[in-house]
Amino acid sequence: MNIDGLIQDFLDSENLSESSKPIYENVLRFFGGFLRENDCKFETLSEFDIFRSLDIYIADRKIKYENTARFYISSVKDFFIFCDKRNFEKNKDLASLIGYRNTDNGFEDKVNIKINSLISTKTISTEKTGVEIDSNELKRLIDECDYIIDNFNSNDLEANIYNGKYTSYISALGAKILSYTGIKVGLLLSLKKECTKIDKFLVIENKKTKKSFSVQIPKRLYKQLVNYRDEIRNRLIQVKKINDNNDFFLIDFNGMPLTNKPFNNLIYEYIGQNKEMGSATARLSKRAIIDMMTAGMSIKIIKDLTGYGDKVLDYCKEKADEIKSVVKDPTHYVNQYLCKRDKENEYYRNIFNIDDAYIKYSISKRYNIEIEKINNKLQQLEDGRIYERTNAKMHGSFANNISQLKEMISDLLYKIEYGEDSRKEELGKEVRDLNFGR
To answer: Hey, what's the torsion of the CAs at 60, 66, 68, 74, to 10 degrees?
Structure first.
């Protein structure tokens, strides 16, 4: 069986989550290419070949962080064990070194030596940002949160305060918000009372960046938040005779702003926590940020929205790039991510989702005048200079500009497809997917 067939068998048969499968595929396709180009035989493969492929992978993909390098090694190791156990290929020496048959004979030590050498030469950074949760962990957490929220009895609120069920309830709401917005815990805890003022959207104010956003959330979560706002929060104020003079949306059973301790405890309970993987809350946010980046949301908007810095965003971008390199239809990752910028009661949709159309923009500014025109138009759209919404209906000038943008994109794609531009191949690499609704 050839290497591509082995890789496909591994991807099909292993219990990989939907979010991790594209990343495994990206690594293993690269590794398979390395084996072919260097005429490496699987049955004679050594750890030195694996490390040599890692060096090329880091240089080719411009990898910056230790976590990504270690994931490459672990992916290749998992693949090798899969093949060896199923008798596809046999390599007794490497199998013994890896240690899955008996005991580890030093492979992990050699991996650590290799990683440390890359760090010492500043090829990669030792800074750890922690890893994102996978889609299975996210589903398990969301399911548990929904169970807690939907089974909370507001009629017996006082008893639920004392038995701890209210704390679990409010923490579950917070966990769901975090999983769909990717914001820092501090921003979550500082949400204002009016954060649900727009139907099916959550208004998030980031005082540090002085930006305000409205992020589309699933209908079920929006209904849960409205029920909390209109029924449970008001009932709590009445039962506890609280003077509701603060402006915070999420409050504890004493009417005070929610703290992160009970909220963190709930997340830890369902997705775990250890030093190597990083903060559970940050891991939850990273999953959302990676999905946003894969969907095409600009890094600047994500940074302003979530409050996370360059280190976390660089890590998430590496992961998103890995997914985009193998996922044929990135529209799958749009999910609920539709970001609006909120300014003086005017709402501007993010560029990748306009009037329920999906535009994935990945064009370099280096190339011809058509691309430069599109860049200028996209910038105008992003800046809100030609965005206008009145009573949820498209303004005429807005629709006209969208139409012009679509024509420009179609024209450029036509030139690339039919070779009317002398730089067809060059442009083809730059224009990945430009879809605007079918």
So the answer is: 110
Whether the predicted pLDDT of 304 surpasses 80: yes
Indicate whether 346 pLDDT > 60.
Answer: no
Cα angle vertex 70, ends 64, 74, to 5°?
A: 145
Q: Cα(137)–Cα(416) distance, rounded to whole angstroms?
A: 41
Superfamily (CATH H level) for 135-326: Intergrase catalytic core (1.10.443.10)
Kind of pairing, strands 211-216 and 346-349?
unpaired
What is the Cα–Cα distance from 307 to 316, expressed in whole angstroms? 14
CA distance 197 to 195: 6
Instruction: Name the pTM for this structure.
Output: 0.58
Collapse the DSSP code of 115 into the 3-class scheme (helix H, G, I; strand E, B; otherwise coil) and give the result.
Answer: helix
pLDDT digits (tens, 9 = 90+) for 263-291: 777 777 776 655 455 677 888 888 888 88
* 241 CB-contact burial (10 Å; exposed 0-12 / middle 13-18 / buried 19+): exposed
Contact 250, 191 (CB under 8 A): yes
Percentage helix, strand, coil for the chain under 3-state DSSP, each rounded to 5 = 60, 10, 30
Q: What is the maximum span of the chain, computed from C-alpha positions, in angstroms?
A: 76
The Cα–Cα gap between 19 and 15 comes to 12
Question: C-alpha distances in angstroms, 402 versus 230, 280, 335, 409?
Answer: 38, 40, 22, 11
Q: Among 1.10.150, 3.40.720, 1.25.40, 3.40.1350, name the CATH number for the domain at 3-121.
A: 1.10.150
CB 284 within 8 A of CB 133: yes
